[in-house]
Amino acid sequence: MKRTAFFTDSHAKKNVTVFDTTLRDGEQTPGISFTLEEKLAIAEQLSKIGVHVIEAGFPASSETERQSVKAVVGLGLSSQVCGLARSLTSDVDACIDCGVDMVHVFIPTSDVQREYTIRKTREQVLDTVNEIITYARDHVDQCMFSPMDATRTDWDYLIRVCRAAMDAGATIINIPDTVGVITPGAMKRLIERIESEVNCPLDVHCHNDFGLAVANTLAAVEAGASQVQVTVNGLGERAGNADLAQTVMALTSIYGIDTGIRTTGLVETSRLVSRYSGISIPPTQPIVGENAFAHESGIHSHGVITRSDTFEPGIMTPEMVGHRRRLKLGKHAGKHAIRQMLIEVQIEPTDAQLDEIVQRVKAIAGKGKRMTDADLYEIAESVMHLAPDEKTLELQDVAIMTGNHVIPTASVRALVDGKEHIFSNVGNGPVDAAVKAILGIMPAPILLKEFNIEAISGGTDAIGHVTIAVEDEKGRVFDASAANDDIVLASVEAVVNAINLVCRMRKHDLNQKA
Ligand SMILES: CC(=O)SCCNC(=O)CCNC(=O)[C@H](O)C(C)(C)COP(=O)(O)OP(=O)(O)OC[C@H]1O[C@@H](n2cnc3c(N)ncnc32)[C@H](O)[C@@H]1OP(=O)(O)O
Ligand SMILES: CC(C)C(=O)C(=O)O
C-alpha cells in the first residue's frame, strides 16, 4: 500500500507540533461546559495521543476555571499545559498561580476590535504588548502571543506588533484568523511575510466560519508555521476551529510531516469528546465519522474488496486512525459486496441465488429501509431455503424504572437457548440500564464497541434509530441497528439483534469444527 505524501512544499517544516485548545476555545462552543472530571479525562486522552501543548483554560475567567486548570497541571502529563490571559497582569497572575508551563497572552490588533473592544490606539497596544509580555516572561519560561483578529489587521502594523512581542520576550507568535475570513492563498502570503520579517516561531489558530479552517491551517504550514492550533471535532466559537483529526491526518498523510501524534487514537479521542460535549459526530465527518471508511455503492465496494486504495485514499487507512472499514447494505449495493458479507458468515449462495438476494436487498432498501446484517441473513435464508437460524436470545419482557429521585434500573426476562433468564441492572440513564441488563443476561461476554442514537424525524415523537457494533471473543465486529419511536426499546432491539448475530457466528464456528 502506498503510504507516501503526494505533496511537499519547500517552506514546510519536517516536524509540526500540535496545540490543542478543546478545553479552552472548544469549551467556548455555545452550550458546552465540561465538568472537572471530563476536563481531566480529555486532557489525559490528549496527552496519551501525543498532543504537544494543551490549552487547559482561561484561569481569570472564573474560580471554577482556575481550579480546573490547576487540576490539569496537577495531572503531571507529558504534554505542556498552557493558560490563556488577556493583556492584564491579573490574568497573567491567574495563569502563573495555576502553575502552567506557558502563558498565552492575547490582545486585539485589528482596527475594529481594537477601537470597539479595548478602546486603545495602535501605539497604546504596542506599549501594552511590551509591558505584558515582559511581565509574563519575568514569571514563566514560555509566553505565546496572539495578535487577535490578525488576519483583519493592517499587515504593516501586524508586523510591528509581532516584532514588539518578540522583543519583549515572546517565545512563539500565534496568528489567529479570529473570525475565519482568510483564504489559503492569503494565509500563505501572510505567514511567509511574518516569517521573513519577524523571524520567529509561528503558530496558527483558524476558525471555520467559511469552512476553511483546516485548509487555512495547512496553508500556514506550507508557508513555514511550526505549530497548529486545533480542537477535537472542530469545537469552538461559532462554526468552530480547525479539527484535530483532519489537520493531523492531512499533515501526516498528504504532506508527510511528523506531528508526533499517535494517530491510532484519533477516533477514540473524537468519540470521548463527542460524548462529553453532547455534540454528535456527523456520519460524513472526515477521518472519524461513521462513514469515513464505509462503502455502500457496488462499484466502490467491489474495488475496495479487491484492493482498498481503489476507492480510499490509500495514504490513510482506517487502521491508521483507529477506525474500521465497513461494507454497507443499501440501494446502491452490488453482488461482490453482498457475496463477501455472506461469505464472512459462511453462507455461500450460487450466482443465481446471489442475483436474487441482491434484487431483494435493492428492492427493500429502495423503499427507504435502513438494512442491517441481520436483514441480509434473513433474505439469504429465504432465497437459499436454509433453515432459519434459531435465535439464541428471545426477549420476553423489559421493564425500566427512571425518575428524578430514582437510580435508572432495568429488569429483563428472556429465553437464552430456550431457557428462561431474569437479570436486572442500573445505569446512568434508562438506555444504559437496559443495555447493561441485556448484555448481563448472556453467559459469554459480548463487548459493546459502538453505540449511536439518532432521532430520524424531529419533534418529541421522533423515531429513534440506534446503530451499534459489538465485538466477539475473536475480535470480529458485528453491526446491528433498530428503529422505534421509543428510544429505549430501539436500543434494546439493536442489542438483541447484535447478540443474536454473535451467537449465530459462534454456532457456525462450532459447526465448522465438528
Ligand atoms: C477570540 C477568543 O476566543 S478570546 C477568549 C474569549 N473567551 C472568553 O471570553 C471566555 C471567558 N470570558 C469570561 O469569563 C469573561 O468575559 C471575563 C471574565 C474574561 C471578563 O468578564 P467581564 O469583566 O464581565 O467583561 P466582559 O466579558 O463583559 O467584557 C470583556 C472585557 O475584557 C476586555 N478585554 C478583552 N480582550 C482584552 C485583552 N486582550 N486585554 C485586555 N482586556 C481585554 C474588554 O475591553 C472588556 O473590558 P471592560 O469591561 O473594561 O470593557
Ligand atoms: C485567543 C485567540 C487566539 C483566539 O481564540 C482567537 O483569536 O480566535
Automatic annotation (TrEMBL):
One of its GO terms (molecular function) is 2-isopropylmalate synthase activity. Pfam families: HCS_D2, HMGL-like, LeuA_dimer. PROSITE patterns: AIPM_HOMOCIT_SYNTH_1, AIPM_HOMOCIT_SYNTH_2, PYR_CT. Pathway: Amino-acid biosynthesis; L-leucine biosynthesis; L-leucine from 3-methyl-2-oxobutanoate: step 1/4. Residues 16-267 form the Pyruvate carboxyltransferase domain. It catalyses: 3-methyl-2-oxobutanoate + acetyl-CoA + H2O = (2S)-2-isopropylmalate + CoA + H(+). It comes from Methanoculleus receptaculi. Its EC number is 2.3.3.13. It comes from the Archaea. This is Probable 2-isopropylmalate synthase. Belongs to the alpha-IPM synthase/homocitrate synthase family.
